[in-house]
Write a structure and sequence with these properties.
The structure is a homotetramer of 207-residue chains. Chain A is mostly helical and 207 residues long. The first copy, chain A, has 10 helices and no strands. The N and C termini of chain A lie far apart (74 Å).
Amino acid sequence: MARLTGSDGRRTMAAIQQAALQLIYEHGYEATSLRLLAKKVGLHTGSLYNHISNKQELLFYLIRSHMEDLLRSCSEYMDAHASGDSRADVEHFIRFHIRFHVDRKHEVFISYSELRSLDKQNYEFITAMRQIYENRLISLVSAGIDKGAFHIGDARIVAFGVLSMLAAIPSWFKPDSPLTVDAVTEQFTAFVLNGLAGSTPPANSNP
Amino acid sequence: MARLTGSDGRRTMAAIQQAALQLIYEHGYEATSLRLLAKKVGLHTGSLYNHISNKQELLFYLIRSHMEDLLRSCSEYMDAHASGDSRADVEHFIRFHIRFHVDRKHEVFISYSELRSLDKQNYEFITAMRQIYENRLISLVSAGIDKGAFHIGDARIVAFGVLSMLAAIPSWFKPDSPLTVDAVTEQFTAFVLNGLAGSTPPANSNP
Amino acid sequence: MARLTGSDGRRTMAAIQQAALQLIYEHGYEATSLRLLAKKVGLHTGSLYNHISNKQELLFYLIRSHMEDLLRSCSEYMDAHASGDSRADVEHFIRFHIRFHVDRKHEVFISYSELRSLDKQNYEFITAMRQIYENRLISLVSAGIDKGAFHIGDARIVAFGVLSMLAAIPSWFKPDSPLTVDAVTEQFTAFVLNGLAGSTPPANSNP
Amino acid sequence: MARLTGSDGRRTMAAIQQAALQLIYEHGYEATSLRLLAKKVGLHTGSLYNHISNKQELLFYLIRSHMEDLLRSCSEYMDAHASGDSRADVEHFIRFHIRFHVDRKHEVFISYSELRSLDKQNYEFITAMRQIYENRLISLVSAGIDKGAFHIGDARIVAFGVLSMLAAIPSWFKPDSPLTVDAVTEQFTAFVLNGLAGSTPPANSNP
DNA sequence: TATGAATGAGTGTTCATTCAT
DNA sequence: TATGAATGAACACTCATTCAT
């Protein structure tokens, strides 16, 4: 009995998280009221506070969980596919990134767009986690430059570009379109690797 | 003297717009209260309504103005630099985009991230404008594929990638950094053109 | 020129009154905003104050004008139709009342239902005017009792009843119905005169 | 003890209703602010919304409750005093009406004068209820005409007159006056019955 | 744990009124 | 007289949060 109570509690909390992810994704953190959240979960507003401490902590929890998941999964994947080849490493990173993000549309969106709604301390905590992730790609690109595999000027700039490109995928990718995740992955991988390889200098046009 | 009346009104409205851009950029549309906005402009809350009809229309106005500005400027620039060369055209698009966006940090951010806060009708209006802009790049890329200048699979996908990459620049670019706008522009131009040129097929690794 | 200005001013004021009567009739005094009124008249809100001193005074003016009109017209009519016969006098009062009220639907309604919106001083002023009117009927009824024409217990009670009955006519009478004003007048006159004549005592049922 | 919670909620709602009746009677619906209402009940403004859904619904609830009460009580009374005699039936209706209305001054006034403040749907709902009540009297009068007990031209017109007369009683009747309810009842009953009996045709004066 | 009522601060918006031009 | 901008108070209503039961 007592176990079942705990079990129900955990199930309720999971329902709260899932509902919160969807509501915040749809309306944004500020526009998502706990009234609405409670209703969606089938609780009275006050009862939410048996499961969460407050709204800000709920947001932080959602984003932090996602980031922890991301960092852990990325480490596992990259460790499993480690190679000395920079091109192969970058390709694996892209592959991992797309796979991981494509079916976490809500979490991904919130983790970017609601950073602003985190209070200072929580914001810095998440930002630090994000930098760890970004640094993985920056490192791979830098290493490639050093090894002569990539010919680009600034690893950080290009890495930011690539990450922005990847991060936006869930916002326009439609799982039910004829376009498969694998097709998108191949296109982006080829595009990025060619971009990094860098044989063609830009025409030096004066604007 | 008499002219100053109208002039004052126009000046007040301009102040409202500027303050709104900054506040919405900082806190988001939902979290930006008209009280705060009024205070920043030096008005009583109710006096705002001598200049705007409501909060939603203010947001719409800000975004629409920005998008109109974007489309007009883009047309002018591209018309002025028209060439038969796909590579040159894409390069000009990138050059224009970065130039235009880099010193419109607030407008750019809001025009993306607060689409969700627009009501249905306004949302569709802005989305249609955005598509016009996106289609410019998609067309250039498609044309390049047709002419054999670019070797990529799907013009739309890659164009979305490029746009995402470009759109994110104001979020990480710091005007006071040693890195100049021109340097960023060159890096991105080279990266994108090489990506589009596309000599290197991806290693077909099964994940 | 100067005359024409004054003339325009008077015309504007007349338009304000008419619009106010209709708006207050429709929405009530509290729910009628000066914004709406100004719009209906084709002025900006602030410009109203070139014609009225404030909202309360406008209401007072509307009601007082109506009451003055009522008292003056009633005096004229009753003086013109004076007779020694109580029955004839009451009949004339009823006839006058219906005639006067039927095509002043707005004024009548407002003069009753918005008494509550008058401030104390204005309320008392109007109430005094109303009592003068009510006393006319009460006097006629009292006189009829004294002369033995009417057989009822309390002139005031019955007079109030009759006045209530008459006052409500504009609220249900529809000028475009097959029922004419004259028909209504006849029905009410007969009913009231028979009621006042009073031959039949009520069955003394214990409730 | 535990029961007291529900009990408190119900007691609060009852207090809200009573306070609302009095305030709306005094100042009108539009001029009655929820701030004032809350203060009178001893709540914060927002706490009202634990009991009502909005101001309009509160008004609707007050009027609807009154009308339901009226229709139910009227049915009970008339059923209990049913008789084949039209004069007795009308007398009972009048008796019931006065009894019922005299000590419901607030409800009665609001239910008439604030119909205009109901939104369209609620207005039509209440109007339909009112017509049921009015039709009771109209039916009695019609039946009396058919049976030859009453001699008047149009049952509807006269019934409206009688209802207006009765409806206004609470507005001038003072419970603490020497005049008793029973006295008023007798006077009105006699007046109406004589009016309906209708022996005297009106003098056909041309105004 | 859930409930329902309460809190107190806050929201966007409207109001009658004023006044320099 | 008309205008357009400003005022300052008020409005109905929602919010996250608390707490006795």
